[in-house]
Amino acid sequence: MVVLNKIYTKTGDAGETALGNGVRVAKHSLRVQAYGTVDEVNSTVGLARLHTAETTDSQLAAIQNDLFDLGADLCRPDMERDAEAEYPPLRMASSQVERLEREIDEMNDALEPLRSFILPGGSPLAAHLHLCRTVTRRAERLTMELATMEAVNEAAITYLNRLSDWFFVAARIANDDGRADVLWVPGANR
């Protein structure tokens, strides 16, 4: 359990922060950017939830919890030392990815195949879900870049990839099962 008695510590005033293993790094380090962007995704999900129905809201609540798990995973380097840690580090699990895949498949069953790319928008919920999708893609790009330099949990990377797909399909559902999607018309304004 986390206990936060004091919100500001002044330990980051010089531009550094502590990772989950206690090592201090620059706040602009790639690892901090990756899990910071995951936190940003979580905030966009909070905005999307202002426009949801019960089923979607419970799914988004689960995703928000997963995103905290993902941030905890990404803020803890040295996966090879997990067994030595005083407390077992929280790592993303394939079951979290599999849940997203099941939900994507269930939502996608209600949709007609796309015949054009769609523009972000439509209903307020769809627009917010598209924002969630694009911020998730940024988090994925940063995490993939991090993975070229340091070990990153494969399930964390896969989760981000599936999550952006989840947001895309959920946005189509939010647009009257795709009937209110805003279609891209190539060269329409030439």
Question: Any overview of this molecule?
Answer:
- The structure is a single chain.
- The protein has 190 residues and is mainly alpha-helical.
- It has helices spanning 30-48, 54-74, 94-108, 124-147, 154-174; strands spanning 16-18, 24-26, 118-119, 182-183.
- The radius of gyration is 18 Å and the shape is elongated.
- The mean pLDDT is 92.
The CATH architecture designation is Up-down Bundle
Q: How many structural domains?
A: 1
Low-confidence stretches: none
According to CATH, the fold-level topology is Hypothetical Protein Ta1238, Chain: A
CATH top-level class: Mainly Alpha
Strand order of the largest sheet: 1-2
**How many strand segments?**
4
What is the molecular shape?
Answer: elongated
What oligomerization state is this entry in?
A: single chain
Could you state the CATH homologous superfamily? Cobalamin adenosyltransferase-like
Largest sheet: 2 strands, antiparallel
Helical content (DSSP H or I, runs of 4+): 40-55%
Rounded to the nearest angstrom, the distance between the terminal CA atoms is: 58 Å
